[in-house]
Amino acid sequence: MRRYPGEGATVATYPPAMLMSKLLLRTLRDAPGDAEAISHQLLVRAGYIRRHASGIYTYLPLGWRLLRNVERVVREEMDAAGAQEMLMPILQSTEVWEQTGRLKTMEDILFRLEGKGGELVLGPTHEEVVTATVGAEVDSYRDLPLNVYQIQFKYRDEARPRFGLMRGREFIMKDAYSFDASPAGMQAAYATMYAAYERVFERCGLSVTPVEAESGAIGGEVNHEFMVTSPIGEDHFVRCPNGDYAANTEAAVAGERRYEGDAPEEELIEHHTPDSPSIELLVQHFTAAGRPVDAESTLKCVALLEEETGRPVIVLVPGDREARPPKGTRPFEQADFDAHPELIKGYIGPMGLQKLGIRVLADRTVGAPRTWVTGANRADHHVSGATLGRDFEVDTFGSFAMVTAGDPCPRCGEPVELVRSVEAGHTFQLGLTYSTKIDGATFLAEDSTEQPFWMGCYGIGISRLPAVVAEQHHDDAGLIWPDELAPFAVHLLSLGAGRNPDVAATADRIYAELTSAGLSVLYDDRDQSPGVKFADADLLGMPTQLLVGAKGLAKGTVERKRRRTGERDDLPLDGVVAALTTP
RNA sequence: CGGGGAGUAGCGCAGUCCGGUAGCGCACCUGCUUUGGGAGCAGGAGGCCGGGGGUUCGAAUCCCCCCUCCCCGACCA
């Protein structure tokens, strides 16, 4: 404490946060019951995060240092890729959201609030704001290309927050947006960011698989999800073991199939099947009637509407498969069934559809030489023995079912596998999706015409990464951070310093030396038994532990333990700094 | 939104069926001992038993309503 000039008051001097005795940190022996995922348990036990409400977390000092390291890696790679950092508002006017129509399409997850000057939303993402902002600033092709990014909180009222930091209602994201004058420019920007993403994840110690994905609510054409295989993944992706194909389950397609032989001869018979509008109920009905069939032997006929023409199309998949509606179609709604009485919900069959002017698409698996149980196009009736070529025709075969493990790879034909994974990043070629909707998102081209921007957007779930990394980098004792992310490079422990002044003095000295050499050091100067310090050091997960104890001092050494491998070696007392600063 | 489970000290849990002094372990405070892998002894502090209503002489416990959290599913840039 020292005197505050001119006042009788004193000014507090706070102890350095690198002393563990002063750190805001409490480790827990037991994980809270609400933590399911290992990463969540460890992050809470090790005192990195605390839950405030469902899907909302406080980052305690260790967690915040970790997060800032994640941000640093991302910043370095974004800056190196030529992106410019800025910061956009969390509180956003509904105006731009009305312009893109997403006030409606994203209403389920939008946090909305009433301000004095009108209604606001808490930004779940920033395409609207960035497009309006850049649109107002950039008027000429001479200012393009441009790539801006920010690291900012996002708010989504998720149906189900999960797994600690994995899926929160409040989370931090890095989002970058590229603006180009042409599709080729957009593609070049995309390639640059794609490469930057691979470096970011590499530096975070994550092995990612970029997968081709469907674009969902964000719009655009080409896009990739950067998937990290993980037991707490909420997604699956399809992967060819040969490594030549990887795609999101929604986007994945299967390769060609070869079938030989003819379908067995079986008469087409109509059956009375009341109350059986689903595959499951149909199977139950047939089984109860003494003619058991399995879902695989039924033909699911899914009615879709072509959005452009407003005409119905039918997609055929085996009953045990999910249909994957092709681009430009959407599932029938009740109103569509009302408008097309020839298609009877739950009892559609493929027979004679062409005569009604309805196109029939079929997954390639439907080309198998076999007969099917399917709808009779008559209420409460199904048929058995339906045979391709005799009873019904297919206009186009393709990959119209969701791909499952064992389906042929579209590139090489090998059976693919289905892998559980987390989406760590996502990149999109947006094209003109936003620039044609937001007012003023145009520039004057070289030929003096007014053109909309060709855009891309690129997200990384910053606050999700600690969870993803922890999930991949831990052991029974606790966390194991990669060098780039560790809150501290070195965890220095004094063992039995209370009864041995030499230990205390040596540890103090090493702490001072390492710190002035520019290393970040967490110094466990607490009056705790060695066992407690070891356990905490392993739990917290710094890459290098330095153990200063009477045992080593007698030999003139301190012990170094590498957290990842458990490998230990002795460093001479006067060579500690040198050993830690030269890799 | 549908199905399932749970709310008792900072964390983990018992007690609830069968109503009667709110408990245990870890963590926390004091003192002594101990000290290379989550120490021991002694003493202590800490509770709207998720909230509201009801039944009862009496409710953590029984009844009704609500809230919150977790899991599975639906949903998801």
Q: How would you describe the overall organization of this protein?
A:
The protein has 583 residues and is an alpha+beta fold. It has three domains: 64-252 and 417-467, BirA Bifunctional Protein, domain 2; 269-398, YbaK protein, CATH 3.90.960; 490-581, 3-Layer(aba) Sandwich (Rossmann fold), CATH 3.40.50.800. It is 23% helix and 29% strand. The protein is built from 13 helices and 33 strands. Strands 5, 9, 10, 11, 12, 13, 14, 23 and 26 form a nine-stranded mixed β-sheet that branches. It has a five-stranded mixed β-sheet with strand order 18-16-17-19-22, with no helix packed on it. Strand 24 and strand 25 form a beta hairpin. It is globular, with a radius of gyration of 31 Å. The model has no long low-confidence stretch (mean pLDDT 90). The protein binds one RNA strand of 77 nucleotides through strand 23, helix 11 and helix 12.
Average residue pLDDT: 90
CATH class of the largest domain: Alpha Beta
Helix content: 10-25%
Low-confidence residue ranges: none
What gyration radius follows from the Cα positions, in whole Å? 31 Å
Shape: globular
Query: What separation lies between the terminal Cα atoms?
Result: 41 Å
The overall strand count is 33
User: CATH homologous superfamily name of the largest domain?
Assistant: Bira Bifunctional Protein, Domain 2
Supply the number of helical segments: 13
Q: Beta-strand percentage?
A: 25-35%
Structural class: alpha+beta
Largest sheet: 9 strands, mixed
CATH T-level fold name of the largest domain: BirA Bifunctional Protein, domain 2
What is the total domain count? Answer: 3
Q: Give the second-level CATH assignment, the architecture of the largest domain.
A: 2-Layer Sandwich
Query: How would you classify the quaternary structure?
Result: single chain
